[in-house]
Amino acid sequence: MTEPEVLDISELCTKYPRRWMAVRVLSREEDSGQPARVEVITANADMYSARLGLDKQEYCILYTGPIPEEKHVLMY
Q1: pTM of the model
Q2: With 0-12 CB in 10 A as exposed, 13-18 as middle and 19+ as buried, what is 35?
């Protein structure tokens, strides 16, 4: 069994640029509450399939790229 990949958010964005990532949140920034350190569950995450098999530990889906600057952005 391999060790889980644990990264800071900046490391995550560098290693997996412009990808949807399913991650388990290990720690949060004190001031903003945003994830600071995470364990990678999967890259190129499909939000629905990533949830399968997860227990009730805290996890989230993150996009590691920049937010598009077009006039319309759809987020759900």
Answers
A1: 0.73
A2: buried
59 is in which domain, residue-wise? 6-63
Which two structure tokens, joined as six digits, stand for 37?
A: 């350190």
Q: What is the pLDDT of residues 9-42, one digit of tens each?
A: 999 999 999 888 889 899 999 999 999 999 998 8
The span from the CA of 26 to the CA of 38, in Å, is 5
Give the number of other CB atoms < 10 A from CB of residue 64: 17
Which tokens belong to 67?
């937010």
Q: Has residue 16 been placed in a domain?
A: yes
